Amino acid sequence: xxxxxxxxxxxxxxxxxxxxxxxxxxxxxxxxxxxxxxxxxxxxxxxxxxxxxxxxxxxxxxxxxxxxxxxxxxxxxxxxxxxxxxxxxxxxxxxxxxxxxxxxxxxxxxxxxxxxxxxxxxxxxxxxxxxxxxxxxxxxxxxxxxxxxxxxxxxxxxxxxxxxxxxxxxxxxxxxxxxxxxxxxxxxxxxxxxxxxxxxxxxxxxxxxxxxxxxxxxxxxxxxxxxxxxxxxxxxxxxxxxx
Amino acid sequence: xxxxxxxxxxxxxxxxxxxxxxxxxxxxxxxxxxxxxxxxxxxxxxxxxxxxxxxxxxxxxxxxxxxxxxxxxxxxxxxxxxxxxxxxxxxxxxxxxxxxxxxxxxxxxxxxxxxxxxxxxxxxxxxxxxxxxxxxxxxxxxxxxxxxxxxxxxxxxxxxxxxxxxxxxxxxxxxxxxxxxxxxxxxxxxxxxxxxxxxxxxxxxxxxxxxxxxxxxxxxxxxxxxxxxxxxxxxxxxxxxxxxxxxxxxxxxxxxxxxxxxxxxxxxxxxxxxxxxxxxxxxxxxxxxxxxxxxxxxxxxxxxxxxxxxxxxxxxxxxxxxxxxxxxxxxxxxxxxxxxxxxxxxxxxxxxxxxxxxxxxxxxxxxx
Lengths: 243, 368
What we know:
The structure holds 2 protein chains of 2 kinds.
Chain A: E1 3-14, E2 17-28, E3 32-36, H1 43-50, E4 58-63, E5 66-67, H2 72-78, E6 79-82, H3 94-104, H4 109-123, H5 138-149, E7 156-160, H6 168-183, E8 187-192, E9 203-208, E10 211-216, H7 218-225, H8 230-238
Parallel strand pairs in A: 3-8, 3-9, 6-7, 7-8
Antiparallel strand pairs in A: 1-2, 1-4, 4-5, 9-10
Helix pairs in contact in A: 3-4, 7-8
Chain B: H1 2-17, H2 19-39, E1 47-53, H3 58-69, E2 73-79, H4 83-91, E3 96-100, H5 104-107, E4 116-120, H6 125-147, H7 171-201, H8 203-209, H9 214-242, H10 252-276, H11 280-298, H12 310-316, H13 320-334, H14 338-367
Parallel strand pairs in B: 1-2, 1-3
Antiparallel strand pairs in B: 3-4
Helix pairs in contact in B: 1-9, 2-7, 2-9, 7-9, 7-10, 7-11, 7-13, 9-10, 10-13, 10-14, 13-14
């Protein structure tokens, strides 16, 4: 399978603190790849390095076939990013947010208009297209934020804890959206601390204290650790029985 | 370029949707110029006085009439005995009391000088000084008329001529100062807040991951503020011209160009502040304490720089508004050209470069 992300010994130190300790992993095109771990395990640091927000201390990392040290600006054109806070402007309307983000990715006017209509149909928001984002429920913002992040058809979309703060039902709907996107050939790289969500991923990495502890499909990992769920796997990795 | 235009449009939407921002942008400048125009003034008008006349002759009546006719004073009360002086001042019925000594007219021509005492309420020292100066001037002119027929010529005759501001009007002083303060407030504070807001809500991260370069993000954020500040500068000039009659003697083009330069300097300072603050409250606090208060106190806006202790005078050298006020006063009031203000212009330009440089460095460091 073609690799869209390859990281070899990716390391990031903040002073003496090692946030990412020699991470090695790769992600194939169209894959849904999950980076799992508790808060502070180093997931956000890893995602920020791949998006060009942080410079790695060492390691060989390529994203969409480009080197993160030298081609960060070109990488930015080929990726999408959705942050934990959804990154929508609360005082702008749905359409204005779409137009703005479409604009900064350089989409032509008519493409933005077409995309707005497609999205309106898909997410069923035409009726409230001129409502301010601030007035929408979190589930709505989440779906819209994701749709905007993939509007410019990136090779990879990075989702940093996209499901925090929404109810389980909305989370399921959100994952349907992720599946559709992956089926269109867009690679999805997602971080989460909800272990049950790992089951939705095709492959996962489990991180603890800045290191990768296990990599594989959820089924393989469960078998390897003899666990009933990814949650159990995580418990065995993060808190190994002592003595 | 199209990306940039989209960014600027979005920024304008933020401004127009937030009524608080709109009030700060357009309400405060107008309100401030009007308030300063009507309230802060060195002129006095209709100050309440009381008179204790122990002679009650034609001369004391003549002087009292002259005082009343000047337009600066109203005589509120005529006192009967020195014991009442304290009471009228204490109650605020009068800001000052004129006391004519006994046998005033009688003593006037003689060796034995006629006496007038002014008792002023100095709890407000500025007004007290003004009142005594104005009264003295009235007494002196009355005296001059009296001695005119006398054969003794005056040896020294003082002729006063106030240049650049012949009527000594307060607007000449406060318009440049208010302009310096308002442009600083809007540009520096508003840009630092708007950038801090993107950080606070997490949208800055998304912008940094996008193909927009950091300088495009910054330029996109400040462009609307440059436009609005410029509109503000013009509004202030129009207001001071039409409401207070302050003329622009120098080149209007030069004046507007200087406003633009100062605006850009203030914006770069705002960007620098935003690089060290992660939320809107911090940005506002830093702006308030490092910009607003020094601008008002140390720029020579209200208190002359020459009268400050040496340490504060040194401090005032690093206050950008100080130079701007000098420039504006020169162009507007004295009508001088760039030849007279190139040094101050250079200082502001240099400050801009330093602030932009420091912001870029700071921005990069924080990204690491």
